[in-house]
Amino acid sequence: MKDKILIVGGHGHVGSVITKSLAENYEDKLVLAGRHLDKLVAFKQKLNLNVGVMSFDIQQPPQKNQFETISLVVVCIDQQTTDFALFCQKQGIDYLDVSASTAFYHQLAQESFDSETGIVYSVGLAPGVTNLMAAKLAQELADFDEMSIKVILGLADQHGEAAVDWTLAHLSESYYLKNQQGTVQAFGEKALVELAGKKLPAYSFNFSDQHSLGDRWPTKKIMTYLGFDVKWVTQTFRGLQRLGLLPLLKRPGIKRLAKGFMRKGALGSDVFYVQVTALKGGIKQKALTVTGYNEAFVTGKVAAFIAEKVYHSEIKGFVQIEDISGFDELLAAIPELSLISANCPPTAS
Length: 349
Known about the structure:
16 strands, Rossmann fold, 7-stranded parallel β-sheet, alpha/beta, 2 domains
């Protein structure tokens, strides 16, 4: 009987949140998978969870017999190819990916998935909550021509090592966006997150939400920006970009220093903000702003919420979070995410 939920990387920074959330109602249905069986066993024992464990390397060809009882797979680690997603589709297994990788999104989007199972992407904070906020604004302002998605992360938050690695790796890249001439440089374009009493800068960054939303609305201009709750840190990254020095962060020694700084939590707070603004003719018309604590925790809660919906429904084909849930429904389900503003007066961009 195919009724199990397999979580690849379910003992990691975000994966552990998903595991603990789903275990509240599906403990006997969960199977944790990873390369190091001893770590999985230690994790389940530490939390006193009655879940299954399975030795599995996602980079290697999967064995069909290991997946005979699996109904849904949740992947919490980055991948370089779509081989595993295609395997799940061929085995009649729904697949949900918790990743912000644009390259992997484009790979999935180019595949020809049939309509028998669901392949779900854009699940988390950005992408994820940002997609739902954009979809909400698009319902209220159907003739918008531009959308600005701004993410502010708290430097004192407990960012996982994989998340820090991913952020540093993408700080110096350039990328293409629909309805944008030429390439966009990470930390090249500026936007402001407007909060009560303060404005925080954010700069262009290659989250996948702007690409999936651009595919949904190909005539609109959509861009995502990243900043931090300590303004001078954000501006330091911007200064390094202008001087052409961001590629230095890829050097092992400098990368170690940067990772240590970002993971130390000595500055800022663990609060994050997400603000999405819809514009028409360069004038801000509608906006939504949400906040919360511990970005990884909220990402895991969002992923668990969507996983449960996929588990109990018949999702078909390659879909995004906005095909599964609405923004208001998500807010009601996740009290750790708070709406702090639902509008803004029309102003010049």
